[in-house]
Amino acid sequence: MKKVKYAFFTFPPSDCEAAQLWLTRLYDQGWELAHLPHFILPAKFIPRTRDDIKYCVDLSHGVRDPNFAPDGFDQLVKESGWALVGTSRSGLDVYKSLPDRDPIPIQTDPALFKKAFFRRELLPTLLVFLIVVLFLILLGSTLGLRTTLPTELLTSNLGLLNVVIVLYMIVFAFVTVGWELRFWLRSSPPTPNLRLARLKSFCGTLFYLCWLFCLILIPLTRVITAEQPTPAQDPQAVATLPLLRLEDLDLPDNPLPWFRRQSSILASALELEETTDGISLTQNRWDCRFGWVADQIVADTLASYERSMPYTPAALGFDQVWTYTDDSGFHSLLLRQGNTVVQLYGNLDLTTPDRLERLRDALELAS
Questions:
Q1: Cα gap 5→28, rounded to integer Å
Q2: pTM of the model
Q3: CA angle, 201 as apex, 210 and 111 as ends, to 5°?
């Protein structure tokens, strides 16, 4: 038999009876709870050392060290035959019986338990939930509600993972509030459903782990998406990519273009910058795996440049085309052909018939 066993203990407060049943079943299988950390770490179980252990799971009275001097409540509980093992991150105190003692449960009145549940768990949860909702509403009204996904997220697997994690956390928060409200509004305590409680505990563990991932992934994603093009390490390899080069327009070629590549499960992105003899050309190409991804990239690009480069629709032989020109001779072209989106801008006009044909050939876009 193994000398130690670890398992996450993130049962919600409404499932304290199911948590107690789970601990009892593990004890019957030969495992005794030895340590319950408050942080996002698994509980530690060791082979049972006694045959008379009972467990009691109650609403938390605050995080405290069971090895430190107990407060008045813990002292009273200890005199009744219980010893605090630890406080879970989800807000539950776990006790086990002292040797040669057969104590009664700490909380025996369902009405008092519901009052304590409302005061210690439900009310703080509702207040925090309300504050978060009001903050999101205020943020949305201040910055404007965004109806498109940022292109940087669509072309980054880390960014997409961030989106999935945040959506999961939002859904879990709503469901948790619903669970707690349903538990509090019931006229009688529900029969413990260990399978459902274990599922909730797993979702809770995933929720807390998501917090850790967000602390790591969000800054990392910002660093990756903020990367700028760098001098191409292999200009010959860049020349074979479906991108427009200055030499394709019979203009002086830049022997060392600036290049960046990024891809995700939804789209791949290529960025190329060339400058030579006073002529500059920058282009971004997105090859999307789905049509709706191309729709999002087009919409996000148009919205992002709405003030600096307000595009206007044009008919230039592609599925969709938008152009922009200012008085200084700066030109920009945004086009979509199938699931490919390309943005080009610089101080040269690409809308002439000859250059449009060369552009189509260089980008390898079928008519």
A1: 14
A2: 0.72
A3: 125
